[in-house]
Amino acid sequence: MKVHNRNPFPFNYAFLTTVILQSMALHAQDIAEYQLPVIKVQAVRTESKLLQAPASIQKVQAPESQLNTHVNVSELLQGVAGLQINNRENYAQDLQISMRGFGARSTFGVRGIRLYVDGIPATMPDGQGQSSNIDLDSLDNIEVLTGPFSAIYGNSSGGTILTETKEGQGKDSIQVGINAGSHHKQQANIQLQGGSEQVNQPAYVISSSYFDTDGFRDHSAARKVLNNAKLTWNLEDGSKINWLINRTKIEADDPQGLNRAQWQANPKQVNDAKNIYDVRKEIEQTQTGLTWNKPLNDQQELYGMVYFGNRQVVQYQSTPSSAQINPRHAGGVIDFDRDYYGADFRWTGKEFLPNTTFIAGLAFDQMREDRQGYENFDATGRYGVKGDLRRDENNTLWNLDPYVQASWQFLPTWHLDAGLRYSNVHYESDDHYITTGNGDDSGSTDYQKLLPTVALGWDILPELYTYASYGKGFETPTFTEMAYPTVGTSGINFNLKPATSDTAELGLKSQNTLGLFTFAVFHTETKNDIVPDDANGGRSTFRNAEKTLREGLELSWQKQLWQALNVRTSYSYLDATFDADIPATTTKPLIKKGTYIPGIAKNQAFVGLAWQPEQGFQAGLEARYMDKIYVDDINSDTAPSYTVVAANVGYLWVNQDWKVNTYARVDNLFDRNYVGSVIVNDSNSRFFEPADGRNFSVGMSVNKTF
Description:
mainly beta; disordered N terminus
């Protein structure tokens, strides 16, 4: 265990910011007139330019030419400052995504940060999200928002990822692609798209893909079918309608984590050599949504969004029958059917007061879940099958969040931005499994918090901007995290408290002939942080830590070096610790103040070079460094630090109505044996999820315009 002292706020980082600001200001004064591209963003709603948004925002544009298999969103988001995204090589558990340490506790799916696809939430009202329904083949851009202003999105907004898919444009076209790679990876996709000049006919993008792999590890095969459609109407009155439909189906085996000896002996193995449990997951999700923008006049606009979805999951776990003898044990098979829906309506008004923009809105989300648990063995003792019922409940949760925002340019180069959201989440569980030894676990609880945000921004020069911001965050436990009071019991853990955070941030941005540069330092104090308690047999329990502290800095720089040669770099530093002792329990030792929060890398760095002309030869080289990651609360072991390199080449051929894109790529070029992610606090010390060794992929797509 490592314990060390903390500074109250990283003033040394703030001083460094001042030095950089002064030096860049002096340089920018000498820059000759230069036409710089304007980067527009939507993440903070009241500002449309990246350079003058009072928040840490990074925008990733989907490349014109394909350079990867387009299966995981991590393919595009590697190297975003402040974002830790780990590929488990386990399609049953989704990517492990965290921002500034929020979400690092997740053993599957996404926690603590919010995901949106074309304005439609990919995060449930309780804060549980998934990235599996993001269609990379039709993606246009991704905006990553970190820091205090994420609170404008309400619950579990330690960070926000907003993805936007393409709208149909121009003539009708069809694109067909195929990719193949190591471990019998294969992906086929087809996309139809076209624009429209008539108000009664929509522009459209319709995309479908199939992915299949044997997996890097034993028992890690997966199949994924993803269908996505987007229809866009631009009406005569200036309003715009987007209708989106998405369906995802995944069947994936789960090799689970390994202990250190297993990982070092054979990283490809499944944790149970005989694989008697046949651990796996099946997911089906269907979602549709509608967004509507309506300008009332030059100063006012209305926005509306509604969505509906259904998610069905069946998961077989590695729980021995001996553990399920306990009459309160919920079994080794999770089976739920979840309906969810919601809406968001807001009004935007400009110039009601001089140089001001106001926003007022109301967001509503609801989720109804029919959840069962079954034994994972039959009468003969065979595992990996659905046995007798051990859990049966209906869970409901909903939120109704009013919010307001304002942006005021009170001096020619100064502006003030503020927001206020009342976030509230209501949980209810109705237990139908009541037997001898297992009583009625029904119950309900409410969580609510007022979330203010404020930022002061200063345009030092047209090419140089700085801001200081503060915000209060709020994170409720998800239903999955509340699902078990302890590993061997059933019912809902209503004793879990929501976490609340206070974040201060100081940022600097510059866009000039030297490129686009962003810098941010931050200090976050969290009360009642939700942390893993135990993980055993695929089942995780959670508890609250009285206080945690996160301090750090983020740097990014990108520039067009010469002609079509671009460089992109980033560095992230995050010191995340428990800021108060966590008392010992009957099964857990004392966690001392100053101990590192597990699952979080202290240092990350990325550099990428890309040669990407509009057509012709393409090439790229990337290097990524990840610091060591502690695996549990007592810091007993770590996943070692690593550096991996990837390279790609390709050719883009364009001739009138035809476009042909070919590529070849190698990841982990030097065949590094490293851990891709960790299962925090696993009770069997099976913390490690190994990453793939050197692996290859090739692909080709053909596009024809009619």
